[in-house]
User: Fold this.
Amino acid sequence: MSKEEIYRPNVAMIIVSSEYPQKKDVFIAQRNDLTDIWQFPQGGIDEGEEVKEALFREMEEEIGTDSAEIIAEYPEWISYDFPPKIASKMKPYKGQTQKYFLLKLAKDAKINLDTKHPEFINYKFVAIEDVLDFTPHFKQSVYEKVINHFKREGLL
Assistant:
């Protein structure tokens, strides 16, 4: 695989509130570097790190809590390419290959975006049908595929 074809291993999470399954709105956060972009929390998997370890570490680093339980896991890795502007900052990576999880926040979970290295400036819970209205075009096909899978499974 040439350097142009390297995908960064990554975990991504669709988070529902502690009111799930009665309420199925999902968490999205507004990036601090691209303020018109809202997304699901996600992050890289460190060398030698287990996927679920990375999941909870990234959750803590990005939204200030890891107080959640895994409801489901998307059955395969799913990849996307970065747009050129982002790819130039992310070299040698061409894009990301992600493992998605559906998580439910614990009742006592406290979201805090003022983390050591803040990535987000705002967050909200939105209806699953509205997520794609907020998310970047280059992630939409991945989001749609994962959301539709969890819908078919009766989870969203």
